[in-house]
Write a structure and sequence with these properties.
By secondary structure, this protein is α+β, with helices and mostly antiparallel strands. The chain has one domain. It is 24% helix and 21% strand.
Length: 251
């Protein structure tokens, strides 16, 4: 059993990338809707995890998939594993400030091989209009959002993850702001309100984890976190089923 904590970044795309992406969007298209919603949303640029597509195509954000980012985590996941997501946003009016919102958790329903299953198994047909596929049915690059990934083949070699809507809980409408990073310290500062304190205790303090979401002031700042093991031994804390039950109450 695996459980990871991951941060996805909600960036402000540079003008060139925005223009090139907008060229793909025709008036009234789903992509145009994404671009219109993006600035006031908690979506990833590229929609991975695919909360936007899950909401607008399948009617449920809990039916999200994950197929572009965190290749190393996706390679480790099996059915029943859990991923806890936070959204890190640097869209603050204060330059260099990042805000972190607790988005929720997903329980893995399917670990899908792209070309072999995603494009041939009829049960996966609802995902074929999502933006985080990376490849088409012939194994060629299929991306909408710029800049396109130069290492797309390597990313696509890792499984495409589908979450179980009955055992997942995501909040993209009003996720709780738990922490802020001002660019000075290595780690972010967590808020002291009751929901933020409960989330921090559940994910870090009860499991004797000293780090938080950020691990560096620069570079690759949001390293994945294994919630169940430190690589040498199991962490303390409540079982995974109890952890997700407690987290669900805070979403």
């Amino acid at each position: 059993m695996n459980a990871y904590l991951c941060v996805y970044r909600q960036i402000s795309p540079i003008p060139k990338d925005l223009r090139e992406t907008e060229q793909v969007a025709t008036e009234g298209s789903l992509l145009r809707k994404f671009l219109d919603e993006y600035k006031r949303s908690f979506y990833d640029w590229g929609d991975d995890p695919s909360f936007f597509a899950a909401k607008h195509l399948l009617g449920d954000v809990n039916r999200a998939t994950w197929g572009v980012c965190r290749r190393d985590v996706r390679c480790d996941l099996e059915k029943g594993d859990v991923v806890v997501f936070f959204c890190g946003s640097n869209k603050s009016k204060e330059k260099g400030v990042w805000n972190y919102h607790f988005i929720g958790f997903g329980t893995v329903a399917e670990v899908i091989k792209r070309r072999k299953l995603l494009w041939t198994n009829p049960s996966y047909a609802p995902y074929r209009e999502f933006y985080n596929l990376l490849t088409d049915s012939h194994g060629k690059q299929l991306e909408t959002f710029h800049p396109l990934h130069k290492d797309w083949k390597n990313r696509a070699a890792a499984p495409y993850i589908a979450f179980d809507p009955a055992r997942s809980a995501f909040n993209l409408d009003s996720p709780h702001l738990v922490a802020t990073w001002d660019g000075e310290e290595r780690q972010e500062t967590w808020r002291r309100d009751q929901p933020a304190r409960k989330i921090e205790r559940l994910l870090f303090e009860e499991r004797n984890i000293e780090r938080r979401l950020r691990t560096s002031r620069t570079g690759y700042a949001h390293v994945k976190l294994n919630l169940l093991s430190d690589g040498k031994k199991e962490r303390p804390g409540r079982p995974l089923s109890e952890l997700t039950r407690a987290l669900k109450l805070l979403i």
